[in-house]
Amino acid sequence: NEAPVAQTPEVKVVTLKNESVTLDTSLPGRTTPYRIAEVRPQVNGILQKRLFVEGSDVKQGQQLYQIDPSTYEATAKSAEATLESSRLLAQRYGRLVGDEAVSKQQFAEAQASFMQAKAAVDQAHINLRYTRVLAPISGRISRSLVTEGALVTNGQATALTTIQQLDPIYVDVTQPSASILRLRKELANGQLQGAGANAAKVTLQLEDGSTYAEAGRLEFSEVAVDQSTGSVTLRAVFPNPRSELLPGM
Asked: Among 72, 115, 116, 224, which lies 20 to 30 A Cα-Cα from 58?
């Protein structure tokens, strides 16, 4: 019998080298408006006009409603007449006090009356200006909760309408406190890409599985732990120029 031929063993060589590895962390979130403003009247009166389209975008300072200004116009005119009368009296007493035709006390009272009348005119003009209900912020306006002819009052509980600023928009993320510590460490040692002080760059996956076109930043500042759940809420901020993201998504 022939002796078996020894086979040469195969040796595979693997060369190790350093390379970057992308670490992905998926966090569930929900969109919330960047700012919300409830529009309320600051004077009493009958609502005459609604001057916006429900569901449209409005600009800060844009007039939304007109409250009947007639009584406030009359009050402003009366205050202006009182101001002129008190101004003339104060001027007259100012000339007479030097001749001691009136006392210094009378002159001081005339001056005080003039200042009070001036303040009354300022207040009347403020109230007249408040009959034009303006948008406090820019954003998407909701439906109107009142109609023309309704009586509105200063400080009423029911808002006339609501404005939500949607660009940029928040995405609130809830995570266990232990996960937040890990994310902070990954940001500190460069494993997460930074987006400014104490913030990381993030992307957003929509409900249909597609990726949102705009990149955002996840902020780690000003967070507190919910003692009942041991979790914290972080806020990511995303640009929303085309209003693709709506509150509650």
From this structure: 72
